Amino acid sequence: MTALIEVRNVHRTYQQGDIDVHALRGVTLQVEAGEFSALAGPSGSGKTTLLNMIGCLDRPTQGDVSIAGDVISAMTGSDAANYRLANIGFVFQAYNLIPVLTARENAEFILQLRGVPPAERKAIVMPLLERVGLGAMAERRPHELSGGQQQRVAVVRALAAKPRLVLADEPTANLDAETSEALLDLMLELNQELGVTFVFSTHDQQVISRCRRVISLRSGQVVA
Could you point out which of 56, 102, 155, 160 has its C-alpha 20 to 30 Å from the C-alpha of 198? Predict the structure, then answer.
């Protein structure tokens, strides 16, 4: 297997009033292409901060982050935004669907940003919505969907653009146990069938038990 993600001696310090908060303290790790992995730890352990570094949403105070050899930690502004758009899919705890768009339109959103024509977008997205059991609900808006259905739309949105990597920040936090289990089974199936690399930030034991590799963080450091 080939290393897709490389994190080298990453520190992240930020100001909270007059106090320096050390969110990450010299983290070094690799994630291989095709992995289904979790960054696990209690609140304040640094897992979301690290996920944001890998997702090109934040920059280290010190150290480097690379994806497929591209040093993303050096990117800023439009370069970082364009890299995310082309390479990374996101699944957020709060779904982050656009209220005025239908499920299909939300799922197509990244493709639309990439300039994919409407007919082609629909041809890509509809089979995925059907795959996750939402084909008949494609024209419903988020307020007409349950939490689990909204999160499935978010997963389709993340996968529709065929990213190298999907980052999921506490994706089951707002879901009941049964819905969480079904969503995780779906993501594991898509990981195995499509070869997409998944990295979760979580403290949910349901997620941790599904992952083939767990990277444990505490106080901003990898401990296991």
Answer: 102
